[in-house]
């Protein structure tokens, strides 16, 4: 019979046999063209290298065995009728049918294995190649007849043909139930990748004639070589050793490595997977040190690229800009791709301008030093981590260890890269536990990683090291028991399978910042007014959006500061406005800003500026937060050397708004001053100890007091008042629940890919951060009598970029449903023109109100009417 495997828009179709053979050929090219991949696969397999390779190619060849079913063939009824295939009057997904066919007909016996449990992880990985496993269950062959009919004979014949062509080894000896569990994760990613490449019509056009494996193998192999080459999926070769100045061309010509950077350069050549932890002051060059470490691993073959994961999109954008002009110097291949991996990348014009059509090849890349990214990586966020160089939010990597569709593809890409995680201290207990599990998976699959932090509490450092060791143990490395002892700062920790090395370093950067404890908000406002009058610039980092908006309004309305001089920066802006503000902030307060740009400017911001953004202020103000964040924030004051500082601001000073850390506070000690902030930072004892240490010392002196400040805030030698015990128990319970939830949602490496516990969701629905439920609002505006997107760029054609630039996230409690009374038909018509039809958001109509404020109506979670206000200057506000 004739079986279709792929169809095309022009009505042509591709034979199922040909498609299966071509996917197997792609798998072989991937394995044989990448020695490092073969090595990692071999380390996870109990079989010898040739047997493992042949097994994976065979399974790739039968990956679509379920498509021989009647119900799949009748998805294109015209082709099924043309090919004489009867209608089963029922349906089930072909991946499920493929797994059931393997189980029912005990196909494991065909490859010389008598125990079905041994190969079920790999069989599920191959046959359920659409991004999530399906349940592996035994089912009687007669029950499958409904879906296959006589076609089952053709399916089984094709399997026998594949066994005969690829398998020359019996797989029973030396295996046990869990032998292939670890291999199944990497294999699942390879099956998905092989199928995606083998399904691309650019390389594998329609051919409806059937063919045997032996007759079609040579042609399929030639096509596969071309496809893999043009997709740029093979690792880009590393550049040979280059000088420090050459590698970072954005640094001054006379730049020399910092102490930390030199320590990384002095490390011996990497020969095996390793974990590095770099702890140093903000502005100490940790990022460059991490890139040097990644390049060291790339040169030795221990890694084939790098991915930098950051806490926020803003910090990822800033890092992308830093790397864009210099990353190509890491690679011998001039057209190595740099990808930006986060949910808002469609808003980044620089990244969008770097995308090159894959059919252009190297001819489409200009040798002008700018970033490039081949379209094959860019056309789907799930392929992003396959690129040789990437920058994004850590969420993109965390999705690899959650029950998220195509997570195995993310893990496969990440396993090739040196994983760099910045601002490790910035994550809560839930995300921190996910990060630990990511390190376990990454270590088990042979990857290397480096963790960066200005201030990492000792207990977190230990947890992350233990997670890494667990992963190495999974692949049989038998690592040493973890026993970190060094408390110096800065500190380089290097962890290999048989050794843990801790190197205390000197710092070539010091922070000796005076700290003034402030108990009255009025003092904070007057300080900002004074620094502005002096010709300087200042920043107040507030703990909540509401407090930031209130502070800005007060400066303008009560202290009469010009609106243009008071910039508000938080997360509750549309994509369009946030990108504008982010760039404005970098221009005004970044390293290259000039005195005339900075003079008289005030930034009121939330935590979006405390991580990785290279900003510098003459005076810094902050609400009280945990000690490691206070140290992080302090690094934004006098961060750069400047020829000019206003009179009175020649020395760094941070003013901290806090309640007085008296010996006998009441239980609402923090909440009385920070009514909303108490829900952001929920450990009053930690906050009290932080405040007490800052008050007693009157300064932050780094690096000499870094450990004392951080560990002291977490209870080392400083007992908090007993009145906080109840709140602490609740906060600890919430953190424990967060960790437990992360453990429940995380995948289990030892369980293998066929583990089907929990619900597998689309990656947009899988939580990488724990917090209150939120809703994505897509703002529409009524202007000139017509309805349009907030950030419409074309009256006739709506792009996904226009949609994302018009969106802002809001608490689901505050906005449950938009009320677009009188505009229902217009909204429906506009949504029909959107690329995603508005499925994943709530479209809200806004009308012009006063000034630059726009207003709309909605219902909150209680069903009450609320007014939604939006301004490009202030962001989104919900008013009951």
Structure in words:
By secondary structure, this protein is an alpha/beta fold. The protein is globular. The termini are far apart.
Question: Layout of helices and strands, plus pairs?
Answer:
Blueprint: E1 4-7, E2 13-15, H1 16-33, H2 35-44, H3 49-61, H4 70-73, H5 77-82, H6 94-104, H7 116-127, H8 141-148, H9 151-166, H10 181-198, H11 213-230, H12 244-247, H13 259-265, E3 275-279, H14 286-300, E4 306-310, H15 313-324, E5 338-341, H16 349-352, E6 355-356, E7 373-374, H17 375-378, E8 389-393, H18 394-398, H19 407-416, E9 418-421, H20 429-444, E10 448-453, H21 458-474, E11 491-496, E12 499-504, E13 511-518, H22 521-533, E14 538-541, H23 545-557, E15 566-569, H24 575-589, H25 595-598, E16 602-605, E17 619-623, H26 627-634, E18 653-657, H27 684-697, E19 699-702, H28 706-713, H29 725-745, E20 774-783, E21 786-789, H30 800-805, E22 807-811, E23 817-819, H31 824-832, E24 842-848, E25 853-859, E26 865-871, E27 875-879
